[in-house]
Recover the amino acids of this structure.
């Protein structure tokens, strides 16, 4: 079979035609053109023998940042402070300049082999036979039905992604008074979008006893938007038909309920990985994150298939997802060169108050995780936690960290704490000391 002609972005796929299917044979196929996928493609394209092909189901590459039109992107990976759309455009330019081929409007529909996927495009069906596959499909916010919020089926209820797509890409209109469910970073991103659309955020609700986002964001946000953040509360009813008129708010400590008038409700956070392709491949999912189970080199259990970014652990910032994408390049290059993974591995488990840890498989012979950090999710606020590692019924490491573990955002632990782990002593449990 002859090699396919290189693709250019936004053009029909060119390759070997078999019946009504176009067959492409890149060295690496990346599924998802968000920050992690584009960064992986940028890092790999100059270093592999063959094409690096990125498939994106949307009409434009760039992921969530392209319709998040406010500053705060690119700080950690690009050492810049830019808007979401500018950050997305820069990621695309860098990937293309490195030699990656980006194909948009390409929806992956199925697997046809260990590293063979099928996709549909406006020009027809495509089969991609790659030597390595990177899953970079990201995460999404749960909509109202998944959150089991009762009440009327009213117009004016959005997730953050839906809201930003409507306002920034389609220049649509929303209401005048909004309630935002959540008080984390993405919640303030929604508030910025509402402000641009001429809609005031009158209330934020969170079930936690304090705002989920950093004080650097929440304190100025409350002043700038004149927004009250109601902790230990939840929305228990949507009122209004056909248009939203109000929501019912419950105080979780007292049980009291009150009505807040609004014509816009934005459901932020409560993320879930877009893991359908991983599930279709039979890849084991971590029950804590609902993302694919990976090791510190970001390998899944399927040979030659890797996973990166917020597909693994909902949800981190775009620049961290991009760094994750760049981190996988070394592992993919090793796979293409025929170098196998170290045989020894240790399972990591998160003990309460932690909900999950990622990566969950530690291979002592592998490079450290991205940014030399283990990622965890806490269900309780702890100002300066003392982290404890237990293996084989005994404590093997302790470390005081001088930053808080807080619900609603990823908590990071230096991965050097794993130096005390013995490959022969069984699983490791990560918790906190009282």
């Amino acid at each position: 079979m002859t090699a396919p002609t290189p693709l250019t972005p936004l053009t029909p796929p060119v390759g070997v035609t078999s019946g009504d299917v176009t067959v492409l044979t890149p060295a690496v196929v990346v599924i998802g053109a968000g920050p992690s996928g584009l960064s992986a493609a940028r890092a790999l394209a100059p270093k592999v023998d063959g094409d690096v092909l990125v498939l994106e189901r949307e009409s434009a590459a760039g992921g969530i940042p392209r319709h998040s039109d406010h500053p705060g992107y690119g700080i950690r990976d690009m050492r810049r402070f830019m808007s979401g759309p500018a950050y997305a455009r820069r990621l695309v330019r860098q990937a293309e300049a490195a030699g990656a081929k980006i194909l948009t409007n390409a929806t992956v529909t199925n697997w046809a082999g260990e590293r063979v996927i099928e996709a549909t495009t406006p020009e027809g069906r495509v089969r991609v036979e790659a030597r390595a596959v990177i899953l970079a499909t990201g995460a999404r916010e749960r909509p109202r039905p998944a959150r089991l919020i009762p009440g009327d089926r009213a117009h004016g209820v959005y997730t953050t992604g839906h809201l930003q797509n409507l306002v920034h890409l389609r220049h649509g209109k929303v209401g005048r008074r909004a309630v935002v469910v959540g008080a984390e970073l993405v919640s303030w991103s929604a508030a910025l979008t509402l402000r641009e659309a001429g809609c005031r955020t009158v209330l934020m609700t969170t079930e936690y006893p304090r705002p989920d986002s950093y004080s650097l964001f929440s304190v100025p946000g409350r002043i700038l938007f004149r927004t009250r953040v109601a902790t230990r509360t939840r929305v228990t009813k949507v009122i209004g038909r056909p248009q939203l008129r109000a929501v019912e708010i419950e105080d979780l400590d007292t049980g009291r309920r009150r009505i807040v008038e609004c014509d816009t409700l934005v459901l932020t956070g409560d993320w879930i990985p877009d893991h359908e392709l991983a599930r279709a491949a039979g890849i084991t999912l971590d029950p804590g994150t609902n993302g694919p189970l990976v090791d510190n080199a970001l390998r899944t259990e399927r040979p030659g298939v890797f996973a990166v970014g917020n597909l693994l652990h909902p949800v981190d910032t775009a620049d961290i997802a991009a760094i994750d994408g760049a981190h996988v390049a070394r592992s993919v290059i090793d796979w293409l060169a025929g170098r196998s993974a170290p045989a020894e591995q240790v399972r990591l488990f998160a003990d309460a108050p932690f909900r999950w840890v990622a990566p969950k498989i530690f291979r002592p012979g592998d490079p450290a995780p991205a940014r030399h950090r283990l990622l965890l999710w806490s269900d309780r606020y702890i100002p300066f936690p003392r982290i404890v590692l237990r293996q084989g019924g005994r404590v093997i490491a302790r470390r005081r960290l001088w930053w808080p573990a807080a619900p609603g955002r990823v908590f990071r632990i230096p991965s050097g704490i794993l130096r005390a782990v013995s490959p022969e002593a069984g699983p490791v449990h990560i918790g906190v000391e009282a």
Notes: DSSP finds nine helices and 30 strands in the chain.
